[in-house]
Amino acid sequence: MHADQLIHENQFHVEYRMKKETWDKLYDVLNQKLQRKHSYSRSRRPVTVVMIMAAGIRFLAGGPIRDIRHVIGLSRAEAYKCVRDFIVAVNSSTELDIKLPRTAREMDSIRAGFAIRSSNSLMQGCLGAVDGFFVAMSAPDKSDCINVRAYYSGHYESYGLHCQALCDSKLRFLYFGVVAPGKTNDNAAYPLCTDLVNFVDNLPSGLYIVGDAAYTCTDRLLTPFVGPQKQNVCNDAFNFHLSQMRIRIEMSFGRLVRKFGILKHKLNGKLSTRSAIIMDVLDFIISLLIVRSLTQ
To answer: What are the residue ranges spanned by the domains of the chain?
Structure first.
């Protein structure tokens, strides 16, 4: 009845960040992992997979547990358990993993997508845009880390976690990792992304990713000219074309935060829990892309 009402009002995609057809495909992916035998809601009804998914998605969208429990009909403790179960299920579903392109066909598809975004298709070899992403959080407990101050970013004036991400031209994440305390800068955090670094270092000649001036420029990681170098006409033109590629990662972050309001507020809990929530949001977005493609 709840879903039927939302569909009738054309609000299902607003409440649950996807169309009903996409929900059904995601249900098929998570069904077995979320099955329960002995668990009941506040009204003594069995806690179903649908209820667990609803609680988890609404939580990631920024909804408070105190409201979610009433909408779904769960006790406070059961609502938290549903959210935890949903996060574990999504993060443990290999079919929802964020994956770097490995085959020549995958790389060519991504390269072609970026070429379309480039004026006159000038940038022909781009395979991704990379940047750091800061997730604000409350101060970690001293028992949870060795150096609490390492998590404080003076730039953002907040404690947080430093993430590194790579996206394609369609704003889909190809890599996302929670890699360092919030104080870490992009150039220091990037080498910690072993899989990403290996991927970039082994790209065929002529292929590359793009980043901002915080990274060290190489023949496979292109960055803009800065300072007096920008005054050169050719360098300025290069920066313009490079920015058309780099903006895709900023747009990806914007979509991420807009859809999943939990990232607009400071995360709480243990560091492992905060990292799991971040990766769950990303895996969940990937799941939306996967199941959406199955419905088309």
So the answer is: 2-92, 98-264
